[in-house]
Amino acid sequence: MVYKFDPIDFNGTTFELDETSVMVMGSTEFLRQNLPIAASYFPKALTFDAASARLPDMFHMSRGYYVFSERARTVIEHWAPNQVEFIPVACTAKPKIASVLNFDSAYYFINVLGRAQRLQWREMEARKFRPQDDGIERFGLSQDFHKWKLRERVLGEPLIWHDAWWRDGNREYRGHVEVLIEDVLWRELDANFPDQLHPLRAGEH
Predict the structure, then answer these.
(1) What's the 3-state SS for the chain?
(2) Which of 70, 83, 85, 149 has the most CB atoms lying inside 10 A of its own CB?
């Protein structure tokens, strides 16, 4: 069983980009090539300007960019060593706000390093991209994750990963934008941090 990895959103955050951080403008090319985003592209600090509850251990800074606490890092490194890169980010706030957020000892942006090719493209709907000059037909995932189909995990494959591109003759299939997570790791994170992950099962109606 596989889940679409989706931590809860957390509103009320602002962040400053330093001189070496060009995440918003420059990281897209890494995603297009299914490569980890270079650490220098991430902000060095998140400054919180509002708080209504404790800061989750896993949350979106913005869609597709995830922040983990030291507590969450410990779980991932135990269950999925070397499958995620942790990039330190300083989380700061005025004392009154910080007391509500109840910061952990450290926070990190995550780069998912795991790669596998488990999507079964011939057995599911695919979304066709606009044709390009090279003549290759390219396809991506449908928006309905319930219709995705994945083969069973083989021993040694990552528990959290981006799916590798798959070629079938003149057709190229890309599902690499999504982060996928195996059931055993999803359940471990959910047990340690209840209600911080959306239960989005891929291929489950």
Answers:
(1) CEEECCECECCCEEEECCCCCCHHHHCHHHHHCCCCCCHHHCCCEEEECCCCCCCCCEEEEECCEEEEEHHHHHHHHHHCCCCEEEEEEEEEECHHHHHHHCCCCCEEEEEECCEECCECHHHCCEEECCCCCCCCEEEEECCCHHHCCECCCCCCCCCEEEECCEEECCEEEECCCCEEEEHHHHHHHHHHCCCCECCCECCCC
(2) 83
Q: Which comes out higher in pLDDT, residue 159 or 25? A: 159
Distance of CA 152 to the CA centre of its chain: 21
Q: Quote the CA–CA distance of 60 and 34 in Å, as a whole number.
A: 20
pLDDT at 53: 85
Query: How much is the average pLDDT of 170-186?
Result: 93
Cα 70 to chain centroid, rounded: 17
The per-residue pLDDT of the chain, averaged, comes to: 87
CA distances to 110, 149, 202 from 119, rounded to whole Å, are 23, 6, 10
Contact 30, 41 (CB under 8 A): yes
Task: Determine contact, residues 58/112, Cβ cutoff 8 Å.
Answer: no
Return d(Cα 48, Cα 92) in angstroms, integer.
6
C-alpha–C-alpha distance, residues 73 and 2, integer Å:
20
